Fold this protein.
Amino acid sequence: MSPALRRGLPRVRGGEPWPPADAVGAAEPAPAPAEAAADGVAASSAVAVAKGAGSGADGLRADPVPPAVDAAPASTGRARTAAAPALRRGLPRVPGGEAWPPAAASAGSRADFVQPGADFAPASAGGARNAAPVAAPEPAASDVREAGSSRPPETEVAATAAVGGRMLRRGLPRVPGGEPWPPAGIAAPASVAPPAEAPRAASHTAAASVDTDAPAPASEPAAAAPAPAASAVELAPASAAAPAVPDGPRPPLPFPRTVRAGAAASAPRTPAPEPVRIGPYTRGQWAGATLVVGAALLIAAGMAVAAVRFLLSTTAGQDFLAAFPGEYHLPASAPVGLPAWLGWQHFLNGFFMLLIIRTGLQVRREKRPSIFWSPRGNKKRKISLALWTHQAIDLLWVLNGVVFIVLLFVTGQWMRIVPTSWEVVPNAISAGLQYVSLDWPTENGWVNYNSLQQLAYFATTFIAAPLAIVTGVRMSGLWPKNAATLNRLYPVEWARKVHYPVMLYFVAFIVVHVALVFATGALRNLNHMYAAQDAVNWTGFWIFVASLVVMAAGWIAARPLVLVPIARLFGTVKGR
């Protein structure tokens, strides 16, 4: 009977199981009764060869492969020989490699590819027989199954003993990404105890002795080896999936695609540009910080207004306001009104202060100046054009201040900004509380400033301005460089630490001063400052507008195109 070969894994991805459906196994005639006992002995002797060859094979199959029977019973004086057919080739050892075993494998190395059964053919009737094994198709680990009833009992016992009691060797996974097959712990059932291992040479010697010594009739037919023996456990279906190939192009989808990538998936993505920074922060960060700080200030101001209004509404608060209304009486000799020269001094003082702040900030930000100025008498001394402009305007501001102080004391106007009584302190506190409560004190600047104004004007004229002059001179070229004692008593580091905060004070004073001028009666206050009259009309306002135009022109003109010709009148100007 010729049973069909069992179909296993496909030879190529997506192909049909191998071998083809129309392939059938060769007929395997049963051995003669006279040779049954000798065949059993020979099969038992070949177990040692199977173990030795199975351990030496470098991963040919997933389980130990029982060896072929190297001997067969023979009659006296006769020998039998059989030609070994080509070995069956299976799956490649590596992805994309050649089918294993190689096509050039010779019959002499069949010990590494031997199958569980062998076919023997007689050489001649009545002659001596030599054991010539015929390699049967090699069963894979997934093809192990029950042998069937057509096998002789002796051969089945020998084949089962060849793998009995030993764990099956694990091979390729059944599904892509799965574990090796068969699962861990699977062992072939053993009906008899496996024989002790013996060297390969001893097995062949035992087989030869059985072959030459066993008597047989002259007309005995050659015994054909049975089908390959295997375990009684079915391990893999014929439709097992092919192992996944890690390399190579991705196979097409087995179903139509229903989701398509949008245009954004293929559009090139350009990195976002670096945000523009103003100092250490970006514009958005500055805007966020301004909003947060502004909101915090508004909340704090609202809380302060509520608290001060509550305080001034009490009896103690009312008594304090009655005793100290916010101003005290000036000396009887104090002048009344504001002269015209004071208006011009006020305009020049504001104009020079604006340019000083602009050039001062430019000097502070400038890292690598491109234009330098040197005095005619000292070519080695060299400063940037921005620093020269800053110092030149400083000199003009100092000259204007000297004129202002002289006229202030000559005309007696000093009594309006210099405190003449200690009552200035409680009255300044009273004026400050009234400003915070939004119930501002009555303004009468034509006659007398309130105490808080008086202290602010005094601090600006006689404290802040002298500090700005002294620290500026220390950092300028007018200061002697070789005066060691003077430099030790007045270090330049101290001057730098004081000069910049003084400039910030002037900025804050200008902002608050202008805000209060417009909030407490703009037309009247502007007439006091610019028109030298105590009236509510637009004269002072238009003079103020004209002064703003001059200040804006000076701000725009403070650049090298205009400054270089002026600087050349007093020294040498060179570029980098």
Notes: The chain has a mean pLDDT of 73. Strands lie at 277-278, 281-282, 371-375, 383-384, 571-575. Residues 157 and 191 are 7 Å apart (CA to CA).
